[in-house]
Structures are given as C-alpha cells and as structure tokens.
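Practice problem: predict the structure.
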Amino acid sequence: MTPSTLARALLPIALVATPTVAAAPSPDLARLKAHLSAVQTMTANFTQTDAKGRTDSGTLQMKRPGRIRFEYGGGDVLLVANGKTLTFVDYAVGQKSSWPLGRTPLGPLLSSSPDFNGKAEILPNPDNRIVVARAKSTGQYGQLTLAFLRNASAPGGLQLYGWTAIDPQKHRTTVKLSNVRFNVAVPESAFTYAEPKKKK
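Answer:
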C-alpha cells in the first residue's frame, strides 16, 4: 500500500473521530487534559502499519495554536494545518483537498487551550504503564484510540505513544511514535507547502 493510500484511509478518521477529553473524576482523564494543555509543540517520527502488515513511515510536527504536519516518506504526501485550514496534498498525483480547521476535531485539539467536552473515555488496560483513551462515539467514519505512556519527565506525566484507527469497513491501521520531543523549536515553515502540479 502506498503512503498516499494510507494517508487517504486515515484522513476521514482524523477529521471526524479524533477523541476529545473532558475534566472528570478519573485521575487519568485529568492527567491527560493536563498533558495536552502543557504541550505547545511536539515533534516525532512515526511508523504506520495496516491490517495486512504493510508499513510506511514519516515525521510529525505540531505547534499550537492550530498547526500540524504529517509528512510521509520522501514528502510526496502531506497533511498540513496552518492555523486556519487543514490540507491533504498528494504530489504523486498532483492533487490537494482542504477543509476549515475549525470544522474538524483537530481545531479544538490544536487550540491554545484545548476544550474537550467529555467526548472521550479512559479504557481499562492491564498494562499500568499505558493510558488508553477512546472517543465515546464511533461516528460514521470509524474509531480512533490513543495510547499514552506514563512518563514522569513528560508534560502531565504522559507521552503520546501512538494510536489505532479502525475505518467503517473494520480495517485497522496502527501508528507508533518514536523520538518524541515536547516544547522544542518548530519553524513556521513546517506548516507551509508547495502547490502540487497537476499530472497530465
């Protein structure tokens, strides 16, 4: 499966089913909200695996408010938010699609003061080293479950480990992060891109 196919498969899930988190009696929910509120920037490498075991990799850069960049492989496929607009760019086919960031759950997730409105839950997990959060409603586009490692040196005592996306056809895609760094310098140029050239 190509990076473009993988990114397209995840895109509607990222747009619609990204979980949000509300303050609640659960200590882990409170810790998760504290973590997300404390992280102003983040960089990481990611490895993405589909249901058939095929993998691809790339880099992630995030900066609040409203900016994130997923870059696959050599940069032929991008998902970029510039504070106002979320754009999917596929240079291999010369196409792009854009949405107002505020109409997607990435908007509040990337805000300077995340507002989570009780739309996620902490799942029981036998491994006490990991906190697992999932959207309470699966929605029409699938389900996204986030996993955080307990890490005393990370903001709020948690570190994003990765996530699992299940699309409406029950296809599973897993993403794992490595080399995660918080509150480091991220240039504004990371959230720009060259316009794709239409293929003849």
